[in-house]
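User: Fold this one for me? It's Sugar ABC transporter permease.
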Amino acid sequence: MSSTQIRSTPSERPATRPWGRLSGGRRREALTGYAFIGPSVVGFLLFILGPLVAALALSFTKYNILRPPEFVGIDNYVRMFTDSRLLQSYGNTFIYVGAAVILINTIALAAAVLINQNMPQWLNTIFRSAYFFPYLVALVYVSIIWQALFQKDTGVINYYLTSSGLPEIDWLNSPEVSKLSVIIVDTWRNIGFAMLIYVAALQEVPKEMTEAAEVDGAGPWRRFKSITFPMISQATFFNVTTTTIGAFQIFESIIVLTRGGPGDSSRSVVMYLTEKAFNDFDMGYASAIATSLFMLILLVTLIQFRVRKSWVHYE
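Assistant: Here's what I get for Sugar ABC transporter permease.
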């Protein structure tokens, strides 16, 4: 058969056609799709990609708002390695990240396992609401409430400590305890969201598998370790990743509770770069800090996605 006799059938022809050849209905459909995604694209360009590019550009300048930016190369990045306050802020932030990942996910998973047990529906709803409600309240308001609870002389927590014969704790003004206060508030507020993710994952675990393991003599811990946890590893990965990113950006609770003090004992990187940008008007250096934090979060997230293959199981 010669090549001139070969004809493609309509089903074999490409489904897409150049814009100018689209029919009126297909063109309206495409325009509708672009109209729906347009606001998201514009918002991303204006409020995410645009500021990110601007911060990267400003990080190579000396800029105090009053005068035009002056290019200084990598001086701002070199300065970061000799800034003791920034290094301490990074150290505090790493502590917040480690505590958040461990405490939030451990407590949330334990609460999810408890809620997933057989209990009346009304009691299950009460438990879910009680755990999740703090997440619905703005972190600033949550921090204000906890600030009152943490007061040394008038706080409820110290009242019960002294009533039990224990000494008072200066929760907000002690360099040794101030970070613990921030960790408690951050953990308490974010447990609810992680718990709901775990509950949804636990409900997808086939009961036949756990029941079969129970018949074979596997105890509760063995069933959880060998069956339940691998089956919810995707939810665990999601919670660990989002918790890590959120903890690196911790800010509001520190502002309300300790204002970064005493000294810099509880100051986070975001709080420090905000101080440099809006108190000292050192926009170039603040942009360099913001860029370094962005790159650190990106690196940690990429590492998490890289190692997930070794412990996250997909059906």
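One thing worth pointing out: The mean pLDDT is 88.
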